[in-house]
UniProtKB/TrEMBL annotation:
This promotes the activity of RNA polymerase II. This is RNA polymerase II C-terminal domain phosphatase-like. It comes from Artemisia annua (Sweet wormwood). Residues 1-16 have a biased composition (Low complexity). Residues 1-94 are annotated as: Disordered. GO terms for molecular function: metal ion binding; RNA binding; RNA polymerase II CTD heptapeptide repeat phosphatase activity. Residues 181-352 form the FCP1 homology domain. It catalyses: O-phospho-L-threonyl-[protein] + H2O = L-threonyl-[protein] + phosphate; O-phospho-L-seryl-[protein] + H2O = L-seryl-[protein] + phosphate. It is found in: Nucleus.
Length: 499
């Protein structure tokens, strides 16, 4: 995605902003040599005479020039006197607070009289009709007006003082989408913890995991390139198997963001482990402090159209407004502390001295899904109107094929008197393409139960229907295909309720 139509797609809006905003705002006019400053003044004199610049020109250069104008602006005015002569206001620097201007009036005899310099506020000379597309440190990028409060969305991950108006965000998204579609790409937002990697503190490493800290342990060769000790953070991080191949292949199809609920310092360090060459993410790293709603992630801080965005995250609840964009990831629990955090009593992968498979692990599986959605979105048989398509619809179609043809009934799964159709497992089954029912009949293919002794469970056995536990649904959701039913048998509880 790019602000400039002819720029490569790898140069995103946020990358463009970050590059020149940091450079421009860190510099001050006071540090320029005197000769350069005079040349700059002459240049600004000419530039500022033209108030009607094209706001839709090259965005990169436009924003760069606007920041210069915001930091030090010059303006010229002319007023007609009653005798027909003209009074000129000399071009003078406008500071953030106020300016002083000198009036020179031509007398009838040809002489010139000067009025005393009068202080006027910046508001009195602001550009009339400015739409205020964005603010840097409280000053409008376009006209230089200073405001204590600004409406819009803060894009702190691009620059700590940047706020863009809703209209400007919409304009940038429309422009980026055109560039993205031209390069046959979509957007991909990636969570960090339990999705791409797993981290733990040194103090939480168990005795069984001690080999991870021993450089002489034979397992170190297998973990090379994926296990990182970070003493300055008192932390050790394990990258998920296949993550480097995943990012490389996904980058050919998607413009990628990192979006984590972690602190920015942690997010940047993890981004460096995943992308040391800054090929995939660059400045597109969104952290907890960038969220606009507490405990929630949102696409309002992503410069991409929602219809072209896919999300990978292990926590569905933080994406309450964007569930249609979300692909839920099975959590990566490499460390024992991670299992403990989520209440799992089983040993972790590290304690078992094991790991996920590169070939058919979570990232390899989801990459196939992403490729399929991308292929459907850009299917040439649907025509060339890519802008009218919605990646969420393609994702829903792929998901709906997982359990297509299955009809399921639940027993001893939902709380008593809980509306079945509102339970997350019922809704999950429907999203996966299954039909749900509260009563058994010959068309039912599966009974999902936590107790083999219930009446419906016994009916399933008698009628030779599949009797499976709820994990069968969850596995199908994470692995994107129907799982062998025999791997999810239902146990008979000691206390049986046959109703």
């Amino acid at each position: 995605m790019s602000l400039v139509d002819d720029s490569p797609v790898s140069s995103s809006s946020s990358d463009d902003f970050a590059t020149f905003l940091d450079g421009e705002l860190d510099s001050t006019s006071d540090t320029q040599p005197e000769e350069e400053e005079e040349e700059e003044k002459e240049k600004n004199d000419d530039d500022d005479d033209d108030d009607d610049y094209d706001w839709d020109q090259d965005d990169h250069e436009t924003y760069k020039s606007l920041i210069d104008r915001t930091k030090r602006r010059k303006m010229s005015y002319a007023t007609e006197e009653p005798n027909g002569s003209t009074s000129h206001i000399e071009k003078t620097d406008i500071t953030e607070t106020s300016v002083k201007m000198s009036y020179a009036t031509e007398e009838p005899n040809g002489s010139t009289s000067h009025t005393e310099k009068t202080e006027i506020t910046e508001a009195s000379v602001k550009k009339v009709g400015c739409t205020h597309p964005g603010f840097i440190g409280g000053m409008c990028l376009k006209c230089g007006e200073k405001r204590d409060t600004q409406s819009g969305v803060a894009f702190k991950y691009i620059h700590k003082d940047l706020t863009l108006s809703d209209d400007e965000v919409a304009r940038l998204r429309d422009r980026d989408l055109k560039n993205l579609l031209r390069h046959r790409k979509l957007y991909l937002v990636l969570d960090l913890d339990h999705t791409l990697l797993n981290s733990t503190r040194f103090s939480d490493v168990t005795q069984e995991e001690g080999y991870l800290m021993n450089p002489d342990d034979p397992m170190q060769d297998k973990l090379k390139g994926s296990l990182f000790k970070l003493p300055f953070m008192h932390m050790v991080t394990k990258l998920r198997p296949f993550v480097h191949d995943f990012l490389k292949e996904a980058s050919n199809l998607f413009e990628m963001y990192i979006y984590t609920m972690g602190e920015r310092s942690y997010a940047l360090e993890m981004a460096n482990l995943l992308d040391p060459g800054m090929v995939y993410f660059n400045s597109k790293v969104i952290a907890q402090g960038d969220c606009t709603t507490r405990h929630q992630k949102g696409l309002d801080v992503v410069l991409g159209q929602e219809s072209a965005v896919l999300i990978l995250d292990d926590t569905e609840s933080v994406w309450s407004k964007h569930k249609d964009n979300l692909i839920s990831m099975e959590r990566y629990h490499f460390f024992a502390s991670s299992c403990k955090q989520f209440g799992y009593k089983a040993k972790s992968l590290s304690e078992l001295r094991s790991d996920e498979s590169d070939v058919d692990g979570a990232l390899a599986t989801v990459l196939k899904v992403l490729k399929r959605v991308h292929s459907m979105f850009y299917d040439p048989e649907l025509g060339e109107n890519f802008a009218g398509r919605d990646a969420r619809q393609m994702l829903s179609a792929v998901r709906g094929e997982v359990l297509k043809g299955c009809k399921v009934v639940f027993t001893r799964v939902f709380p008593t008197k809980f509306p079945a159709e509102h339970h997350h497992l019922w809704m999950l089954a429907e999203r996966l393409g299954a039909t749900c029912s509260t009563e058994v009949d010959p068309s039912v293919t599966h009974v999902i139960s936590t107790d083999a002794g219930t009446e419906k469970s016994r009916w399933a056995v008698q009628e030779k229907k599949f009797l499976v536990e709820p994990r069968w649904l969850e596995a199908a959701n994470f692995l994107w295909h129907r799982q062998p039913e025999e791997m999810f048998p239902v146990a008979v509880k000691e206390v049986k309720d046959k109703h």
